[in-house]
Amino acid sequence: MARAQPGERDEAPHPSAAVEEWVFTAWEPDGSAGIVTGYRIHRAPGAGRWYWAALVGRGRPLLHVTEWDVPARADPLLVKAHGLWAEHVCDAPLQQWTVANETYAAALEDPDEALGRAYGVTTPIALDLEWYATAPAMAVADGYVQDGVVHGVVELPGGPLHLTEVPARRWHRWGDVLGPVELPPAFAHTGLRAPFRFPDGTVAEWVLTPDGWRARDATPSA
Questions:
Q1: Tens-place pLDDT, residues 118-168
Q2: Any idea what the CATH number is for the domain that residue 123 is in?
Q3: Are strands 78-81 and 62-67 parallel, antiparallel or unpaired?
Q4: 128, 161 in Cβ contact below 8 A?
Q5: Rounded to whole angstroms, how far apart are CA atoms 24 and 99?
Q6: What is the mean pLDDT of residues 51-73?
Q7: CA 207 to CA 221: how far, in whole Å?
Q8: DSSP letter string over 181-202?
Q9: Rounded to an integer, what distance in angstroms lies between the CA atom of residue 40 and that of residue 123?
Q10: Quick one: pLDDT at residue 219?
């Protein structure tokens, strides 16, 4: 059962929730490139905070970022760890967010390596994205999801990737327990994948389609 329709107050952190998560995604309309960033707070004593991100693109390796031991900060949406800075700023509730990071990714030729030790070529990456809503936030069982567009740039060693009003989607979820975001299955996709294995043993197998990110299906890609 979905929660009540989200309001502006829901955009703020929910300190009474045992687990809370923010996920932002964007993709080129032709499915040639896509971004995922996620941040999860576990509030139980001794529990960790997780940050993960990925950039996929046609003709380039998967750029894979994970940090499973983020120190707590006074600003709950500021992420700082060794070699990692990331920020999530609500500029206007249910309307606009700024999402940014500076870190090093592992460049993986085989996305399946992301489900193991994820050893790859260390690659600097920095993104600065402005997320704008194009539709109302829709309640789901553990929070809400909202469609939008992204403007911004991803700085890479070979030159920047500019994003201009590309489709985007975000989730804000909280509760006693959270699993990975549930996506509809992809029966055909571009072949671009962003898999993650989380410390609790759960796995997110995301693939990119022209309609956005979907869950990987056993059907061969298009």
A1: 899 999 999 999 999 999 999 998 999 999 999 999 999 999 999 999 999
A2: 2.40.370
A3: unpaired
A4: no
A5: 8
A6: 95
A7: 9
A8: PP--EESS--S-EEEEE-TTS-
A9: 24
A10: 43
Residue at 222 is within a domain:
no
Q: Of 77, 151, 158, which Cα lies nearest the Cα of 124?
A: 158
- pLDDT tens profile 74-127: 899 999 999 999 999 999 999 999 999 999 999 999 999 999 988 999 999 999
Return the amino acid letter for 34. Answer: G
The answer as to whether 167 is a domain residue is yes
Which tokens go with 122? 């260390």
Helix, strand, coil: what percent of the chain each, to 5?
Answer: 5, 55, 40
Domain that holds residue 105: 8-216
Q: Which residues, including other chains, have CB under 8 Å from residue 62's CB and lie 6 or more apart?
A: 54, 55, 56, 107, 108, 109, 111, 114, 192, 193, 194
Residue written as tokens 């929070």? Answer: 143
Residue closest to 206 by CA, chosen among 197, 193, 220:
193
| 160 three-class SS | coil
Nearest CA among 99, 118, 105 for reference residue 54? 105
- What whole-number distance in Å separates Cα of residue 86 and Cα of residue 135? 26
User: Which residue type sits at 72?
Assistant: A
Q: How many residues in the chain?
A: 222
Which candidate, 95, 104, 98, 92, places its Cα nearest to that of 78?
98
Identify whether 2 is part of a domain.
Answer: no
3-state secondary structure 1-16: CCCCCCCHHHHCCCCC
- Residue 46: per-residue pLDDT: 74
37 located within any domain: yes
